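Quick question: what would this complex look like in 3D?
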Amino acid sequence: MTFDWSVIWTHRQALLEGAALTVGLTVLTMLLAVPGGIMLALMRLSSNRLLQSASLGFVEFFRNLPLILVIYWVFYVMPMAVEFQLSPLVTALVALVLNVSAYNAETFRAGINSIRKGQLEAALAMGMSRRQAMFKVVIPQAGRRILPVIASTWVSLFKDTSLVSVIAVSELAYTAMQIRAQTFRVLEMLTAMAVLYWLMGYPQAKLVDWIHRKYGVKE
Amino acid sequence: MNNDITRAPARKNADQPPVLVYEEVRKLYGDFVALDGVSLQVHKGEVMCLIGPSGSGKSTLLRCTNALETINGGRVLIDGVPLPAQESAVRKVRQRMGMVFQSFELFPHKSALDNVAMGPITVLGMRESEAKARAMALLEKVGLSAKAGNFPANLSGGQQQRVAIARALAMEPEVMLFDEPTSALDPETVGEVLSVMQKLAQEGMTMIVVTHEMGFARRVADWVVVFESGAIIEQGPPAQIFEHPTVERTRDFLGHLGWNG
Amino acid sequence: MEFDFSPIADNWRFFASGLGVTVALSLISAVTSILAGLAIALLRLYGPGWLRPLLVFYIDSMRAIPVLVVLVWMYFAFPLLVGFTFAPFWAAVIALTLHIAAYAAEVIRAGIESIRPGQTRAALALGMSRAQLLRKVLLPQATIRMLPAFGSILTIAIKDTAIATVIAVPELMHRAETVAGQSYRPVEVFTAVMVAYFAILFPVTRGIDRLYHRVAHLGRS
């Protein structure tokens, strides 16, 4: 069995483009899923029963399904819901944003709830509105607790982008596996794929550790 | 001191209408009756101490006063006007009262000065420079001008509580509500907080204080109210409550605390 | 827009066998991951010094590489290195264990380290050996604290089994793809399978929450 590792070099352009799309998907998803998560959390924390249930339902739904299934489902359902054909990339983005928003919603909700009730009361007792109390007292404190969790979610998202390869989005996993199919260089390409993910993911994981250390809860 | 206790004691500013009136106030937590039809009046400039066993309803009444808890029956009247139901109107009422909590509740992400200035800036819309000047003056008043830049994590419990008092005073309230202000403090620092409170009382502030510090109540209070199981069992001037209580259960409570007069 | 759910009813045995594979793969992988994770955590905490950086490297690497990549590599590439092939199911077990054990190891390490050092001192003062300390004082308390995390390991395992479809493991997701392709009714099929996965996962997450609240007081020191 001979191995030809030069295929990796030959196809470096495509691989790098795939890696770039992986990163781009991660960034774009998070940019949408953070506001999405905040909105869902505020809905859950509001006094409106309907909003509360809607948010709870949404979050429980997406947290209890495999992402790969959600990706397939959105892929087949979206063309029915919107009359025109959407690219696999947009479909992938929708599925990822829905999924990550649900996780973020829990993160934000738990973070806000972790702030002692007395802090909110002290702010209200001064005459602040609920909105002022949340934005000036509760949320700044909750932010410290929420950031490390969002950082971990980020890294999970980065890995989960590999799943959109099943609907032929040309991120790193799809690109590497396509090259494998074309060149029959199975071990070389799959190893290259693993190494490329490792090169991008390892520093991110270490960064997350640093964030956890720096913003760890000091009570 | 008047030894004739059969004469009804004269209350401070009794000729003026009371600042706060509680009419048959009821508060329920599920099935538990926290307040069972409490009626009480607070006069201007009066220092009222609420004492009694834990869970007797004293803190609950205080928290109903500034609508941190909503009542299930009766009325709370401020200057003759019942507490409004709407959030925006309630906020206006809260601005006229200051509250000091057992757990201080200073905002940990802000310095002492910023904590005190926060009310005027955020709620009253005051200019930052003006608010900070007022805050500095108040910190001076409670003896902590040197710690203005410190964050709560770098202040002792007693210092934090004094900053909390300054923070409440920054809103220039008509009434100050104290919810067991010294219960969470080391014995050494209790005194510094009580002396700030005593100074406030001497300046004529209307104060309602839930406390276990019987010495403070004896020395500083104008009126003492004894709670048990959500009801008032006795009220009167400190001389009566601590030396000649008329109700058996008051005697039991004080005796239990080791209070020998 | 009409929906036709008959392909699901017609193929219910097919789906049921897929569900069986999902359950088997999930449970086996969860158990092996926790056992492997336990071994790794203990080696990391109490093992020889030279091993520690290697274990940390392994753990951190699994945080960087997607499970899809590990699955595909284990099934397609690994055989080329060693000369023999695995059945998809067992390749999936190995890949999932490799990936999840890293997470389990961290969970267990955190659980053990979260117990107050006073507990260790008290046990040693009584004359217990380190092994007894571990077995009788630390692990029991740590296990209770880690129950929610073990629960989440099970949910992760169940969700990751769906990814095993890419290496043709005949679990539920793979069955869904097959039937959807044959019947041209992807929306109905995937919706039904969604309901199935939700029906499995939701009780697991809820059940772990309940269990934790029941026994939480036993783990506090």
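Answer marked as accepted. Chain C has nine helices and no strands.
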